[in-house]
Design a protein that fits this description.
This protein is mostly helical. It has 14 helices and three strands. It has helices spanning about 15-50, 60-80, 85-90, 95-105, 115-135, 145-150, 155-175, 180-210, 220-245, 250-270, 280-300, 310-320, 340-350, 350-370; strands at about 5, 10-15, 140. A hairpin with a 2-residue loop joins strand 1 (about 5) and strand 2. The longest helix has about 35 residues, at about 15-50. The N and C termini lie far apart (about 125 Å).
């Protein structure tokens, strides 16, 4: 049973019920988003199979609009989840999207089910169980006054200062130095997403209090937070799309999930005081569950394009994410020493066409010489002396 203790304009929810509702909303919202994305993809696939005369713009197909409606409902579910569960729980549950998307792709889009997919799903499920079970069960639902107080607390001001400085540096690297690296783009996305998480949870809390009879609609801060949420959500999508255009989804999806989750957890701890009162073992098991989700998403998304994920693909993947000195294990020299003639052999292999022509010429010359050489009888025509 939920117990609401109102004191100093702060409502404390100390119950498993709120956490359960928040998790159900987050998981349901992510499932709807996965189904909506696959519906839109299915619409495009079917449209490509039709002739030029039968093709219609996707906006004229009811199935595509059904996907859009489901996506909106899914985002509403995610938004509502912030009003019941901590952001540090809602954000990692985004792994549900990747897991459900994999099953839909295998069942309906006829994509191949790989051992990596099953292993990744198992890790994601275990990780989700751990992070939910060991997360904080105390949720602070803030009203407008509490949110204003949190905006001026010293820890949050230091947090904002570090994020703004980091964001400026990353933007200089991206636009001034033209460093279009996947880490730069997704770090920008994650920093902007932290403001989205803070504002979305603030709006969700104030709307929840309004429905409970504590109206917050006369407070300007709710509208300010709504504007911040909309602007930052659109901005982070811009940078995420930029990363998707330049890099493969097997790089962008797991990296963005990790960065976004870390950003959301940090924002929840600093602004909403999540994880306060948790024991060391709870914090460790929670972080361990997050790591399992990260690894599970990586296994599910890596190599999902249909191409074989060989050693060259692994090298390319690591080169796009990390500096060279961090993945030296992919560039080791051969264990066996090279023979003295290895350089000559390499040169000959690069000149195979020329060598083949020369070999044919040598054969013709050898045949002519054999005809002109005396045989075992001592004459050229085979007559014995």
């Amino acid at each position: 049973m939920a117990l609401f203790d109102v004191h100093s304009h702060e409502v404390t929810v100390n119950t498993y019920k709120g956490l359960f509702i928040g998790c159900i909303l987050a998981v349901s919202g992510n499932m709807l988003i996965s189904v909506s994305l696959n519906l839109q993809k299915y619409t495009h696939i079917k449209d490509e199979e039709k002739s030029a005369d039968e093709k219609l713009h996707y906006t004229k197909r009811p199935l595509w609009w059904l996907g859009i409606i489901m996506m909106v409902c899914g985002e509403v579910g995610n938004f509502s989840a912030f009003g019941y569960a901590p952001a540090s729980v809602v954000a990692p549950l985004g792994s549900t999207t990747v897991v459900v998307n994999m099953f839909i792709a295998v069942s309906f889009l006829k994509e191949k089910l790989r051992p990596e997919d099953l292993f990744g799903v198992a890790l994601a499920v275990v990780g989700a169980f751990l992070l939910v079970n060991f997360s904080s069960k105390v949720e602070f639902v803030m009203d407008a006054k509490d949110i204003l107080d949190s905006l001026t607390q010293r820890a949050f001001l230091v947090y904002i200062f570090i994020e703004v400085i980091t964001l400026i540096v990353l933007l200089v690297l991206l636009y001034r130095l033209k460093m279009e690296n996947v880490l730069v783009l997704l770090l920008i996305t994650a920093i902007i997403a932290s403001f989205t998480v803070i504002s979305a949870k603030a709006c969700s809390n104030m709307i929840k209090l309004t429905f409970q009879g504590h109206s917050q609609l006369d407070q300007p801060i709710i509208y300010v937070m709504a504007i911040v949420m909309a602007v930052t959500a659109i901005t982070q999508v811009k940078f995420l799309n930029h990363a998707m255009k330049l890099f493969h989804s097997t790089i962008v999806v797991p990296t963005n999930f990790v960065f976004f989750t870390i950003s959301a957890i940090t924002a929840g701890i600093v602004f909403y005081r999540e994880m306060w009162g948790m024991t060391a073992i709870q914090v460790f098991m929670y972080l361990f569950g997050c790591c399992l989700c990260f690894i599970g998403v990586f296994f599910i998304t890596t190599g999902r394009s249909g191409d074989s994920f060989d050693e060259d693909s692994a090298k390319k993947l690591m080169a796009d994410i990390l500096p060279t000195w961090l993945y030296s294990s992919y560039n080791r020299a051969p264990i066996q020493p090279r023979s003295p003639n290895s350089d000559t052999a390499l040169l000959l292999s690069n000149q195979s066409d020329t060598d083949e022509t020369s070999f044919q010429g040598d054969q013709e010359l050898q045949e002519i010489n054999n005809q002109n050489q005396p045989n075992q009888y001592g004459s050229q025509n085979g007559t014995k002396y």
